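notes to self, project folder thing:

trying the whole complex as one job this time. last attempt i did each chain seperately and stitching them together was a nightmare. two parts in total, labels are on each line so i dont mix them up again. if this works i'll redo the older ones the same way
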Amino acid sequence: MNFDSLLWVLLLGSLLGLELIGKVPPTLHTPLMSGANAISGITMLAALTAIIKAEPNSPLLIIGSISLGFALFNVVGGFFVTDRMLAMFSRKPTKKNK
Amino acid sequence: MNLPDIIKFVIDLLAVLLLALGIKGLSKVRSAREANILAAFAMLLSVLGLLFYYLGTSGIPAQSWAWIIVGSLLGSFFGTLLAKKVPMTSMPETVALFNGFGGMSSLLVAIGAFLFPFNVVAKAGSLEPFINDVSISVSIFVGAITFSGSIVAMAKLQGWLSTPGWTQVKARHFVNIVFGVTSLIAFIYLISGNISSIWLLVIASTLLGIGVTLPIGGADMPVVISLLNSYSGIAAAAAGFVVDSQLLIVAGAMVGAAGLILTQVMCKGMNRSLISVLFGGSLSAQTTTSSGSGEYTNITSCSVEECALTLEAANRVIVVPGYGLAVAQAQHTLREVTKKLEQNGIEVVYAIHPVAGRMPGHMNVLLAEADVPYEQLKEMDVINPEFPATDVVLVLGANDVVNPQAKNDKSSPLYGMPVLDVQEARTVFVIKRGMSAGYSGIKNDLFDLPNTSMVFGDAKKVLSELIGELKDLGVGDK
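result (full assembly):
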């Protein structure tokens, strides 16, 4: 991919992000922050690429693996904790057991 | 383009679309939970797309598989463990920790890519190696700031770190400028081919993250976390340039931009500007001396019994929960009290200030956890006109958000902050441990008003006693 087309991708992605959330009810500030935070763990793709492309026995394997671990901690934990919060909102007051 | 390229391209497009829909859905109450699952699915899809792409093209060596499995299992396991175990009251520091680890991941992968290059196709005279180095440097710089800033934020929210007085001196700006300039110099050396300056960049930007976050007071911390969350998106986008992935760039840029908007929304709710949050230091440390504005002169304190008697006679009660309630973890006990009142035919609603709890929206989560019906939670603009028609207001561990100074006193640092007009109600009970000031460190004029009575004690203890008193009065025993 050319550098200039990557820059276009960056620009359009940023504009999309600015438009995506206009008005957020205060109720959702915490879950939205936590959910967006989980998505930022997308660096796991960079870590995966590094591990796959690393030479055999290269220290890059270990660095990549640690990086992948940190990213997945962020991603998996982030989505679970967001779901835990949001589950409480969607719970119907009439149904006690769920 | 051959087949694996096309498949990967389609999967990446789909993942971006789902991520965008996910972020969008997360900003609406109805769709939020599904949106979160959608985003998680998009992430899974992107990983599978990447793995299948390499399986179909260059192949994935056995050694790589081993390290992938070790890294993902450990990360997912501990992430899940923390997510499932952490109490809802500790949500702010949990988000900070997750965010810090995301920054650490970008930092590490950038260091790895620099020391052991795996992606540069050096064409003579092309710009690519240079761009590669710039992307790596940006990734290191932003990743390190995100990591150290988030860890400091977490430690402060957890109470492991306080805001020491020396962090408030003006000289801190000078120190941070030194860290910033050092980072910049290391940055320039790095992209001009001086490999060893990578460590200087790592150290200087880590210190910069600490130096900027440390002086910021607890009340402003959620804004900082939101901003650092935005940074971690930028770090991811920079990493996308390193590994040449449009998906990473788009997703990172979206999170970065959305995080900025959310930060702005939060600042507005607290009547703070981003600049004053970042460079203004701790509000309480500044104002304790300048705006203590005298002692309390007209405090009425009352017993739990009196409070119960007044509640029993009321028709309409508004509960104002705040930070203190979250700290005392008293939301479940509060729910028992309000259940008793409701059984007696008393109307109970909760007034939720936009920044109630330990971060915006946190109180809604805590009350939802305690099974409070969603319809009983009223936002500030809805509830404010209703205070004059209310018999009793119970203020539980909230302070600055009910301070009338914000409306009446132009000289007050709180002036202009949106507050709940609790003083309009017939009777106000403030349940509080002592006379200490709130986050802002400013005297609360509400406590001096004739219709305000203080009930001193820990929120949870007072509420349990209140349940006992209400029982003695025969409230809610039907």
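what i see at first glance: Residues 47 and 67 of chain A are 6 Å apart (CA to CA).
need to look closer tmrw
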